[in-house]
Amino acid sequence: MLPNEEKDIGLSYTKKIVNWIEAHGMEAVIPEEEGAILGRPGLSQHGFFEESELVAVLGGDGTMLRAASVAALYATPLLGINLGTLGYLTDADQCDGIASLEKAVAGECFVERRMMLECKPLGESFIALNDVCISRGSSPRLITIQLGINGEHIDTVRADGVIVSTPTGSTAYSMSAGGPILKPDSEMIVVTFICPHSLSSRPFVAPATDTVSIGVAGANDAVLSMDGEAKAQAVPGKLMEIRRSKYFASVMRTHEQGFFDTLRRKIISRRI
Question: What is the reported pTM?
Answer without folding.
Answer: 0.92
